[in-house]
Amino acid sequence: MVKETKHQIQTIGIIMDGNRRWAERQGLAKLAGHRRGAEKLREVLEWSRTAGVETLIVYAFSTENWRRAKTEVNFLFKLFRRFLKTEVDSLIANKTIFRCLGDRAALPTDLQSDIALMEARTSGLGPQTLAIAVSYGGRAEIVAAAKVFAKRYHGKLDTARESDFSQCLFTFGLPDPDLIIRTGGEERLSNFLPWQSVYSELYFTPTYWPALTHKEFLVILKEVADRDRRFGR
Asked: Virtual CA dihedral for 31, 84, 100, 95, nearest 10 degrees?
């Protein structure tokens, strides 16, 4: 656990960037980078657990990623299916709730079923939560939430609050991130949690996602936990 800091980092969002570039640097096929990236997620989930992080939200596949080659998209979904099947026992043993965030209707029907099964089997566990954003786009999430919000609060919009709108988002029930980490060297959020990240601390590292080490992870948590977070005060 990160100790002797100003703040405890309890919720982290991660933009897992750099898989393909890591693979190229290693002289491997790009798809091998995605495979190593999936393995890294397992490691980071454990690091988060031991550091006292209760909620981990990771950006796995964006709405823009649908534009990638079909072979790559299919491989990513194959990895996701494998993750759902191989990690369920570990998540249950570690009392970790699983959530999937995004436009599920766009996913293959068998994958939708696997996601629903994983969510059902881990429901009611905790305190840790792993939320994976798949077919997710922040702007699309806000538009979808606005439609739900308009129906739910039709005729009483004048009394509706920000917290009411938050309950219409894919992330309903999840805390906003204290910290968002992006690996891979890019310094932008790329449509990741635009509503939820307004007061998140941001940390950009040039380290590619598969190369992230436990030591660097702890350094990031310590550096951010020592920041002075005023929330406008």
From this structure: -130
Q: Which residues are catalytic?
A: 17, 65
Among candidates 185, 192, 164, 191, which has minimal Cα distance to 57?
A: 192
* Per-residue pLDDT reduced to its tens digit, 181-211: 999 999 999 999 999 999 999 999 999 999 9
Tokens representing 233 are 């005060």
DSSP 159: G
pTM of the model: 0.94
**pLDDT tens-digit map of 210-220:** 999 999 999 99
Do the beta carbons of residue 19 and residue 65 sit within 8 Å?
A: no
Residues whose CB falls within 8 Å of the CB of residue 115, separated by 6 or more in sequence, listed in order = 84, 100, 104, 107
DSSP 28: -
Answer yes or no: are the C-beta atoms of 2 and 224 closer than 8 Å.
no
Residue 217 identity: F
Instruction: Give all domains of the chain, ordered by start, each with its CATH number.
Output: 11-222 (3.40.1180.10)
CA gap 18, 50 in Å, rounded: 25
Q: How confident is the model at residue 68 (pLDDT cuts 50, 70, 90)?
A: very high
